[in-house]
Amino acid sequence: MTRKEQIERRDRVVVFLREARAALEVAESRYLRGLLEYLNVLDAQQSLFVAEQDLARVDLAILTNRVALHRALGGGWADPGPVEDSSEKKDKRNG
Fold first, then answer.
1. Distance (Å, whole) CA 48 – CA 42
2. Tens of each residue's pLDDT in the chain, 95 residues
3. Is residue 47 within 8 Å of residue 13, measured between CB atoms?
4. Distance in angstroms (rounded) separating the CA atoms of residues 27 and 39
5. Three-state SS for 7?
6. Is residue 6 helix, strand or coil?
7. What are the residue ranges spanned by the domains of the chain?
8. Which of 10, 13, 23, 1 has its CA nearest to residue 50?
9. 35 DSSP assignment
10. Cβ neighbours, 10 Å, residue 48
11. How many CA atoms are closer than 13 Å to the CA of 29, on its beta-carbon side?
């Protein structure tokens, strides 16, 4: 899948996510007024969770492809060196 197709897919998922949030708000409002059963609210919540999961998957795919491109073009991982423990830093400053 090309980057353009991935971005277009992400845009569709974001629209779906907005609609799922709005549907949940409507379902909760109607439930509070006694117009719907709670099962409808749970269905709306499930749709929202699916939309959020889809967005995370699309973002992961986009970022994974970006890393693959970086690596393919000769990029590498910089060696940041050893990481000091925060307690060691305090001891060096105090001692």
1. 10
2. 888 999 999 999 999 999 999 999 999 999 999 999 999 999 999 999 999 999 999 999 999 999 888 888 887 666 656 777 766 655 566 65
3. no
4. 10
5. helix
6. helix
7. 3-75
8. 13
9. S
10. 20
11. 6
42's tokens: 């749970």
Residue 74's SS3 state is coil
Interhelix angle for 3-32 vs 38-72, to 10°? 160
Residue 55: burial class (beta carbons within 10 Å; 0-12, 13-18, 19+):
middle
Which residue carries 């693959």 as its tokens? 68
> What sign for the dihedral angle of Cα 3, 7, 9, 13?
positive
For residue 43, CA distances in Å to 14, 29, 34, 37, 60 come to 19, 14, 16, 11, 26
